[in-house]
Design brief:
Blueprint lengths: L1 H36 L1 H13 L3 H14 L4 H16 L3 H14 L4 H16 L3 H14 L6 H14 L3 H9 L8 H12 L9 H10 L3 H5 L3 H23 L3 H44 E3 L17 E3 L2
Antiparallel strand pairs: 1-2
Helix pairs in contact: 2-3, 3-4, 4-5, 4-6, 5-6, 6-7, 7-8, 8-9, 9-10, 11-14, 13-14
Length: 319
């Protein structure tokens, strides 16, 4: 009687729902357990999240896969893809830490090689060329005969070029063999780097001397005509004011104005020297920018599955 009252209280529709739930719950439980116990399915889901650029959740799924099956063959790839996900998400420190861990753990293996190379790539994107040099050097040391050594040397040369270390940059390019995909490009870039010494220059010493003789002339010589004219006018006015003060026997004002003029005069000389350095730097930077446009490097191509996670950069020429 109590059971009948219970059925009446929930209604026949509610009873039907409970029966259906009871029949399907075991099946649902089996599917859920199957998903949790199958690391390959977790990895496939992580790859899907990676492809739709949901990098944070992709990282979580890669880590879940590693936790479920740390000895699974896909575990190494999952660890590597965590680094790529951080890199794609521009979380540079996390990407570097992930790649470094894989590079150390799988030294001499495909995943370790890729991670070692990606360390250089990641900091290169950050324009931290000192670190890029360090990581590319480490890659070359660990994998000296690898097929991607020419690419590493080519990018190492660019890192040195951006650091204004032109001789070393040319030295790296000259070590790229003649039978590689980078041989023609490396030869052309090396020749172009050699022309940096022939670029028009302004002598900082001469600029300082000119400014000492005629205030503002050093800046005009270095291409800053407006600054030079202003410096000439200001110094001329102070000199004229000081002379007039002394001519009027106003030695105190003449002395004060002279002291102020000494400061302006010294600043004018320093400005001439600095302008020459800025001129030279601007000419070099513009030339390097033209080289970057001429030897355009696109991001390294990788397939969606990440099976070959780095390859030769795409290089085009613009003349």
């Amino acid at each position: 009687m109590a059971n009948l009252n219970s059925i009446k209280s929930i209604g026949w529709k509610g009873l039907f729902f409970l029966i259906i739930l009871g029949l399907t719950a075991p099946v649902l439980a089996i599917d859920e357990r199957d998903l949790c116990s199958d690391p390959e399915k977790v990895f496939i889901f992580a790859e899907h999240l990676y492809e739709i650029q949901d990098y944070l959740n992709a990282i979580r799924e890669y880590r879940r896969m590693i936790f479920l099956a740390p000895c699974h063959p896909l575990s190494k790839k999952a660890k590597l893809k965590i680094g790529f996900a951080y890199k794609k998400d521009e979380k540079w420190d996390e990407a570097i830490a992930s790649f470094q861990k894989v590079a150390d753990e799988y030294l001499g293996q495909e995943e370790g090689k890729t991670a070692s190379f990606e360390l250089g790539e990641t900091v290169f994107l950050q324009r931290d060329y000192d670190k890029a040099i360090k990581f590319y050097r480490a890659f070359l040391k660990s994998y000296p005969t690898d097929e991607f050594v020419p690419e590493a040397r080519f990018k190492l040369a660019w890192a040195y070029l951006y650091n204004k270390d032109y001789l070393v940059a040319r030295g790296e390019l000259e070590q790229i063999g003649p039978s590689t995909d980078y041989s023609i490009t490396a030869k052309g870039l090396s020749q172009d780097i050699g022309q940096i010494s022939d670029l028009p220059q302004r002598s900082p010493r001469l600029a300082g001397i000119l400014s000492a003789i005629v205030p503002g002339s050093g800046q005009i010589y270095a291409g800053k005509v407006g600054n030079g004219v202003v410096a000439l006018i200001i110094n001329g006015l102070f000199i004229a004011a000081a002379i007039q003060a002394f001519d009027n026997d106003n030695d105190i004002w003449g002395g004060i104005i002279s002291l102020i003029e000494i400061g302006w005069y010294g600043g004018n000389i320093f400005g001439g020297i600095a302008s020459a350095h800025q001129y030279n730097r601007r000419i070099r930077d513009n030339y390097i920018e033209k080289l970057r446009e001429k030897y355009k490097m696109e991001p390294t191509a990788r397939n969606p599955q990440g099976e070959k996670v780095f390859g030769l950069a795409v290089i085009t020429f613009r003349f």
